[in-house]
Hints:
By secondary structure, the protein is of the alpha/beta class. It has helices at 15-18, 27-42, 54-61, 71-94, 108-111, 113-128, 143-148, 150-161, 194-197, 211-223, 238-243, 261-268, 280-289, 329-336, 340-347; strands at 9-13, 47-51, 99-105, 131-137, 166-171, 188-189, 227-232, 250-252, 274-278, 293-294, 298-302, 310-315, 318-324, 354-356, 361-363.
Amino acid sequence: MIFSKDKPIVIKIGSAVLSTGKGQIDEKVIKNLCDNVAKLIGKGFTFAIVSSGAIQAGMEVVHQQRKISRLSKKQALAAIGQVHLMQIYKKHFARQGLNIGQILLSHEDFKQRDSFLNTRSTLNQLLSLNIIPIINENDTVSTEEIQFGDNDRLSVLIANALEAEEIVFLSTTEGLMDLKGKKSKIDEVEKIDNSIFSLAQGGNAMGSGGMGSKLNSIDILNKAGKTAWLANGKERNILNNLFNKENIGTCFKARTDKKKSKQLWMLQNLKPHGEVFIDKGAYEALSKKKASLLFQGIKQFEKNWEVGQLVSIMYKGNEIARGMARINSKVLSKCIEKDKKVLTQIKEGNIPKFLIHRDDIVIIDKE
C-alpha cells in the first residue's frame, strides 16, 4: 500500500463518522482526524478534505436529537451547522499550527467547464498557501446531497479537479465486508462488478450515502486510474495506521490508464444538457477510429444546449459517449434539415462541420 506525496490526497469523511448518533458532533473523532492529518502533513503529504456533518452540527446547536425529514428544516440546520463544524475543524487544526479554508459547492459549479476550472484554481491556490481545503456540498441550496449522498460523488469531482490519484473514504465500517461465510473484511478489490455491488447495504440513520453510493463513486475513480480506500473513520489513528501500510480497510485498485482531466469532467458531470442519437456509421467511427462526431451521423436530438455545453451521444438506447458541443442545438437542427444557408456556412468554414471534435469526446466505459 503506497501513498504518493506528488499529488494531493482526498479524504472524504461521512456524516455518521462525525456523529454521536444523538444529534451531536463527535468532537473527539474530529480531533483525532486533525491530529492524524497534521502528522502526515509533517511527513510531506498534502490533503483536501471533503467533510459531511453540517446537518448534524446544526442539530447540536439547536438541541435537535431526532432525524429531520423536512427538506427546508434540513437546509436551515445545514446553514447553522456549517459554521459550527468549521469552528471545530479550525480549533483542532490550529492546535497543530495549520489553517483551513472552507469551500461550499454544488453540481452547478461543475456543469460548465469554466466554473470547474475556477474551482480547481481556488483549490490549488489554497494548497499552495499551505491551507487545508475543507469542502462540503452546499446543503442550503442543493437538494440532491441531502437526499442522495452527493458528498461521495463530490469527492470524485474534487479528486479530478486536483488530479489526485488516491482517495480515502472514511465511514463507520471496517471496510467492504463479505456478508457470506465468516463475514470478514475484504482486503482488496481488483474490479467492482455485480458480485461486489451485491455486498452494498443501505444508508444509516445519520448519513445519506450508504455503501451503494460509495461503490458507485469508487468504481468511477478506479476506471479513471485512481486508487481508493474504505476504512473506519472512528478508529483511533486510522489515517496514520493506513499510511503505515497496515492491513486496514479495503483497497480498491485502479483499473485503467489515467484519463485526462477533461475526460473525467465529462464522465462525472451527472446531467448533460442534451442528447444526440447516432447511426451505426457514426458509432463505429467514434468507438473504433476515435473520430469527431459529424452531422451526417446524427439522426435526431433531444433538449437544447449552447456551445461548450455537455451532450450525451446515444446509440441503440444507450449512452456510449459524451462530448462538448462546438455548435448549439438550433444550428444542429438546421444542419439535420440541410438548410442551404447553414450548409454554405459550413462549406466556407464559418461553422464547424462536426458537432463534437474528437478531442472533446470521452467514450463511456461499459465494463
